[in-house]
């Protein structure tokens, strides 16, 4: 293959301030019946090292929480233990959580309540929407893009996402605070595997100064951290056998039986229209069915956590020489050093091979390579342009908690893409 347009982009970032990746829980603890504040109540987030104690006003806050769903325990000597479950924490959002403890001289059963996200967040200054990682794997969709394009303000056109009517390429893509925007093409360099997502935040309105180089909106993704234990999942999906099927019709039905009407002098008859829109013809298909394979594993043990995911996709195409395939390998490793320091690293690798398209980003699952096929080329099978690309993203992070209300995060990120078209 002769290289016609090699592209290499390398990005290294050292930053103390970047897009939010964590959330916050805050509230007030009072005594049931009197409503008086309870000073020194212990507030613990189950399964984590996060916690706080209430001040003289009975108020508390817990910062630096990764997005997710938690159980929070409130305990104080002389009062029944109080547990709030299903407490949802989202990126850059303060989750309010109040508690009222019953006075109790002798230890008894604890009180458990189920928390729910408020229907309206009256502190927001921009339009934000949240997609949980469980939603991306539970819905009958193949990609995260299929979920995102169902949100208000987001549409898909020609395979590209548009926010608030803006142009493609005007969005910022962030993963754990690192930019995944191809600086040459302006598109998303690496689509994140659904199994790797803890939460996706979509900002379609105004956004803070911490987000730069974006006009239409922000896609802010936080990768999963491994829970305790070992968990694994493997799935394989395939289409039916692709026998030869051909349609002479287009988007408006069969050309042979359709009546043609036009108010334009430039289009004189139906034959002219059919010639100008020959790409609407659906060519038949020979070859193997499309296939998608996903495999992910997580290993967590105390301070150590590893999450890894693999996705493989293959579309044999409608004719020889126009196949579409990619393999994506992604992982995240975290290590808690003592009570104040947390280290992390993430790695994303994408290997793509397919028909050339300026929008080609490897995220073709659920579409067919034949969608880009123009029938005028169907007899020149060896002339279809091809694309081969390899993209690597590597990041290191260190988060240090200075006090109950202050933490510092240092990141270093590397992004490289090599692409050959020919």
TrEMBL record:
<dbReference type="InterPro" id="IPR012910">
    <property type="entry name" value="Plug_dom"/>
</dbReference>
<dbReference type="InterPro" id="IPR039426">
    <property type="entry name" value="TonB-dep_rcpt-like"/>
</dbReference>
<feature type="domain" description="TonB-dependent receptor plug">
    <location>
        <begin position="125"/>
        <end position="217"/>
    </location>
</feature>
<protein>
    <recommendedName>
        <fullName>TonB-dependent receptor plug domain-containing protein</fullName>
    </recommendedName>
</protein>
<dbReference type="Pfam" id="PF07715">
    <property type="entry name" value="Plug"/>
</dbReference>
<dbReference type="Pfam" id="PF13620">
    <property type="entry name" value="CarboxypepD_reg"/>
</dbReference>
<dbReference type="InterPro" id="IPR008969">
    <property type="entry name" value="CarboxyPept-like_regulatory"/>
</dbReference>
<dbReference type="InterPro" id="IPR037066">
    <property type="entry name" value="Plug_dom_sf"/>
</dbReference>
<dbReference type="GO" id="GO:0044718">
    <property type="term" value="P:siderophore transmembrane transport"/>
</dbReference>
<dbReference type="GO" id="GO:0009279">
    <property type="term" value="C:cell outer membrane"/>
</dbReference>
<dbReference type="GO" id="GO:0015344">
    <property type="term" value="F:siderophore uptake transmembrane transporter activity"/>
</dbReference>
């Amino acid at each position: 293959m002769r290289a016609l347009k090699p592209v290499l982009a390398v990005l290294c970032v050292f930053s103390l301030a970047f897009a939010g990746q964590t959330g916050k829980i805050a509230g007030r603890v009072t005594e049931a019946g009197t409503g008086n504040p309870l000073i020194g109540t212990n507030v613990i987030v189950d399964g984590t090292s996060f916690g706080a104690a209430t001040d003289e006003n009975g108020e508390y806050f817990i910062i630096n929480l990764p997005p997710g769903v938690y159980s929070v325990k409130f305990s104080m000597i002389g009062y029944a233990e109080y547990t709030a479950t299903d407490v949802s924490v989202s990126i850059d959002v303060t989750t309010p959580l109040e508690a009222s403890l019953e006075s109790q001289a002798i230890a008894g059963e604890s009180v458990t309540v189920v928390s729910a996200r408020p229907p309206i967040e009256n502190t927001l200054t921009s339009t934000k929407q949240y997609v949980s990682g469980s939603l991306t794997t539970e819905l009958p969709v193949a990609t995260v893009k299929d979920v995102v394009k169902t949100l208000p303000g987001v549409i898909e056109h020609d395979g590209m996402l548009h926010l608030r009517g803006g142009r493609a390429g005007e969005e910022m893509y962030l993963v754990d605070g690192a930019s995944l925007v191809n600086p040459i093409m302006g598109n998303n360099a690496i689509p994140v595997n659904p199994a790797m997502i803890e939460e996706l935040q979509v900002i379609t309105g105004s956004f803070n100064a911490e987000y730069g180089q974006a006009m239409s909106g922000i896609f802010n993704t936080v990768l999963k951290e491994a829970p305790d234990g070992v968990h694994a999942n493997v799935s394989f999906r395939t289409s039916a056998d692709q026998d030869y099927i051909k349609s002479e019709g287009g988007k408006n039905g069969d050309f042979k039986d359709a009546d043609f009407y036009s108010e334009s002098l430039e289009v004189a008859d139906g034959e002219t229209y059919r010639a100008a829109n020959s790409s609407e013809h659906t060519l038949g298909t020979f070859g193997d069915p499309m296939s998608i394979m996903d495999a992910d594993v997580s290993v967590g043990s105390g301070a150590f956590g590893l999450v890894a995911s693999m996705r493989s996709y293959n579309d044999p195409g409608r004719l020889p020489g126009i196949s579409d395939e990619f393999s994506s390998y992604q992982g995240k490793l975290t290590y808690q050093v003592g009570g104040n320091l947390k280290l992390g690293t993430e790695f994303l690798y994408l290997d793509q091979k397919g028909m050339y398209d300026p929008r080609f980003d490897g995220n073709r699952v659920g579409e067919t390579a034949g969608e880009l096929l123009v029938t005028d080329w169907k007899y020149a099978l060896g002339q279809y342009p091809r694309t081969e690309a390899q993209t690597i993203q590597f990041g290191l992070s260190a988060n240090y908690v200075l006090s109950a209300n202050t933490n510092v995060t240092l990141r270093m990120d590397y992004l490289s893409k090599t692409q050959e078209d020919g």
